[in-house]
Amino acid sequence: MKHFLLAGLIGLGMLSSAEAGYVDVSIGDHLKLYNGTGNGTGGEYDAVLQEFDGTNYVPTATTWSTFCLEVDEHFYYNQLLKVNNISDTAMSGGTNTNNGDPISFATAWLYTQFSNGSLVGLNSSGTAENGNYNDNHAANATHLQKAIWYLEEESLGVHNKYVDLALAAGWTSIGDVRVLNLMRYSNGQLINAQDQLVLLDPGPEVAPPLVPEPSTFALLGIGGLALVGYGWRRKRQVA
C-alpha cells in the first residue's frame, strides 16, 4: 500500500488549479505533488513544476493532473521530486514494477482522453457511461485511477467501464503519454519515488510510435471483451 504522509500544503493556496493537457517537462526538472480530486487513495494528483530561484525551489505556472502507477511506492505531498527519466515504463516500484512495467496502450488512451477533456463520466458503480467526467468529478477520478491500476496489473485495480472503453479504442501506441520516473530526497540522497503519468508537449522527448500490443489485439478479437481475471499479463515489444 502507498503511504501518503502530508508534509503540509505550504503555499498551495497561491497556486492555480492543476489542469490536464500537454506539459513541457524535461529530465532533470523538479516538481511537487499535492492531493487532488478523488475519493480514497490514488489520483488525481495535482503536479506543480518547480524552479530554483537561487535560494529555494518555488512553484511555476506549469501544473497538471496525474495518476498513480505503483501502489506500493512512496512519496510525500509537498515533497520536492526530481524527474530522473522520462520513459514508457514504471520502474522500481515494488513487486510488479521492480524490473520495469511498460504502460499499456489502453492506459495511454485513457490518460489522453482525460488530458484532452474528452473522457466521459461513469455512473456511481462504474459500470456504465453517465454524462461528462466533471459532472461527478471526485467519483470519476476514483473510477479512472482504479481502471489505470487494473490495466497496469496493480493490486487495487478494478475492472470498470473505463477499462472496457480503453480496450475497445484499439490503440496500438502510447501516443504522447509518458511516464515520469521520479526520485525523492532522503537524508541527502536520491531514492525512488512513485512514478506518474504525463502528456508531453510534442517534441524531442516523444519517441516514435510503438509496435502493436499482441494481448490487446487478442482481447479485441473476441468481441471487445475486457481482461479476464487478474492474472492477465501484458506483453509488448518496443520498436
Automatic annotation (TrEMBL):
<feature type="signal peptide">
    <location>
        <begin position="1"/>
        <end position="20"/>
    </location>
</feature>
<feature type="domain" description="Ice-binding protein C-terminal">
    <location>
        <begin position="211"/>
        <end position="235"/>
    </location>
</feature>
<keyword id="KW-0472">Membrane</keyword>
<feature type="transmembrane region" description="Helical">
    <location>
        <begin position="215"/>
        <end position="232"/>
    </location>
</feature>
<dbReference type="InterPro" id="IPR013424">
    <property type="entry name" value="Ice-binding_C"/>
</dbReference>
<dbReference type="Pfam" id="PF07589">
    <property type="entry name" value="PEP-CTERM"/>
</dbReference>
<keyword id="KW-1133">Transmembrane helix</keyword>
<keyword id="KW-0812">Transmembrane</keyword>
<protein>
    <submittedName>
        <fullName>PEP-CTERM motif protein</fullName>
    </submittedName>
</protein>
<keyword id="KW-0732">Signal</keyword>
